[in-house]
Each structure stands twice: as C-alpha cells, then as structure tokens.
Write a structure and sequence with these properties.
Distance between the termini: 4 Å
Structural class: alpha/beta
Radius of gyration: 20 Å
Oligomer: single chain
Helix content: 25-40%
Largest sheet: 8 strands, parallel
Number of helices: 11
Strand content: 25-35%
Number of strands: 20
Amino acid sequence: MELVGRRYDTDEAVSIKVKEDKIASIDVLPDSEAAGLPFIAPAMFDLQINGHGGTWFNKEGLTVEEVCQVLEKHYQYGITRLCPTLITSSYETYVSGFTAIRAACEEFDWVDQMVPGCHLEGPYISPIQGPRGAHPLDQVRAADWDEFSRLQEISGNRIRLITLAPEVDGAIPFIKKAVASGVVVSIGHTAAESEQILEAVDAGARLSTHLGNGAHGTLRRHPNYIWDQLGEPRLMASIITDGHHLPASVVRTIIKTKGVENTIITCDASGLAGSPPGIYEQGSVEMEVLEDGPIVIAGQRQLLAGSGVETDTCMTTAIDMAGITLQESLDMAGLNPARLLGFEQIRLEVGSKADLILFHYEGAGSRMNLQTTLACGTVKFGTLLVNS
C-alpha cells in the first residue's frame, strides 16, 4: 500500500509504503508534487474518552457489542487508540464495564489494538462540589487498594491510568502501590492542599487530569491546587481544548509552563458526545446536551460534564487558542499520551506501526477534514485515493 501526502511535521511531500502493519519506506517527492496533497500524520491517542452516542463505558450491563460500537465510531475522528474511561460508579457497575471491555479485547484483535489500557477516573476523589465535577456524590469513597486490585484482575490487568485526589483517606499508600504495579497515577478532581499535592508527587503521581477543570469556581489566589500542579515539573498535564472547558489564556499558560512535551490534549468526550440536545439521566446525575454544544449538569450552564466533541476538534482548537503548530498539537494528542503510559510512540519513521491519518487542514481558524484513518495498516475510515 502506498500513501502520498505532506508530512505533518516538515510539510515535505512524501510517498509512504506500508507493508502489513508497519511503515516499510518513506521517500521524499519533489516540491512540485505537494500542491493539493493531504497531510499525513500519526493517528491520535486519547487517554480519556467516556463513551459515545449515549453509551458510557461505565454503563451498568454494558455489552461487548456496545463496546465495539463506541470504539468503532472513533476512527472517524482520527483516533486509533484510546483509554476507555470509567468515572465514579458503584463496584458492580465497574465490574460490568471492565468485564465487557476485557471480553471485547479478547474476542476482537482490532479492539485489543485500539484499547491498550483503561482509565479509572475516580471513585477516590474529592466529595466537594466543584472539585467533584459531574461525578455522583453517592459513589465517592476513600482509596481502596483491595477494591482496585479486584477490578484490575477483572479487567485483565488493563487499568493503566487512575485519577484520584491526594487528600482522600488512604490515597498516598494507594499511589505507592499503584506505581509499583505499573499503573500511572494522575491527580484530579481534588481540593488538596499544597503539602498533599507534593506528597502525591513524591509517591509517584505523574499527571494532572484535565488541569483547570474539576475545580472550585472561586479559589484563593495562591497557593491553590491548580498553581501547585502547574508549577510542579514532575507532573505532565492533560487539558481539554474544546473551547468550553478552558479559556485561551489558560491553555496558553499551561502549554507555555509545562512545555509541549509535557502537555496532553484530551477531549474527555462524554458518553453523550454525538447525542442530540436534551436532558439525559446518568445514574443519579441528570446531564444536559445544550443546543450550542456543551454538555453540563442539567439546569445550569457552568458545571460541565465532559466534552461533546472529539480529539480532532480539540487538536485544531488548541492551535487557535495557543498559537501552536500543527505538529505540536498533534504530538500532544498522540505522541505524549503514548509516552506517558509506556506504549509505542507512533512516528513517521520506517518500522513504526502504520496507525496513520490523511487529512486536509487550511490553517488557524479551520478544522481537520479527515480523509482516511489507518490502524495497523488497514483502512478503518474513509478512502485511500492512492496506489495500493
């Protein structure tokens, strides 16, 4: 199979040959052949996606078929790898979700490739309104290593990322055990004091989950848990750049402070992403998809409940908000999450896995027009208008 396009990182016109699931060769073409060609880039990897179209990964009674349906939808957004994210729920709901995800991975190779790991966001988080976000209060609880170990076994050892609040009972010993077991720990949905943030990082926490969100509406100017995480060089930060969760000034500040190499773009897509406007029940919480796109706790417009758009939109919106390059934004949406979690970093290099996207992009103010998504060298979305 041959792909012809412009490299997303150098803008060079290239011919990329794919053999089986790998990039077999890359040849530079004359500049005269670049006009009108799509960009070629590594596909995106989002470490925080909660579901799609009304189906949540922490849905009670989740089926293998539903897992596959949700995952398959994401090829159209240029995503070939993602972490199914299960938010704060009952133990029984977690068992249902992780059982279905594991079964889908074991039954279908493409699912196993698309799900290198899962993200457990909660339930060991702050119960306080604001930091808790849209997570149900009645399921928030203290850190429980025994519970987590049971869920890890049920998942087939697929939980690779957990978000928790350092101040909850048992959090620090939990972090140490999780890190020792190979799980990446992220700080999020927290109202922690400075000393508690530092203690969590000393114990091995490596990421801040959607920094700037899942927080009080009003904070003391300093110190506070956002500044503490922003200024901690040992923490990477994920940010939701959908245009609703953070203002442009905050996006710019986080990227400038952390650096492109330590910032991760996530869409944090709600299970209601792709759903029509209206009010929906999610367990004990009512959520609303607004006419203009945001997803909120029903009845108001301030408390967001995940994003209604996907990583492709967040990637181009980040360019508009922060003035970064196409390469920088795509690397934050693919390379960085893979590096954090210890998975293969897809690059435009011979021998790299052929998880690739071809797309048109007209620059700042425009959106990605995805033409083709390849996963492991196989076309999963769109058409391949090249030699094969």
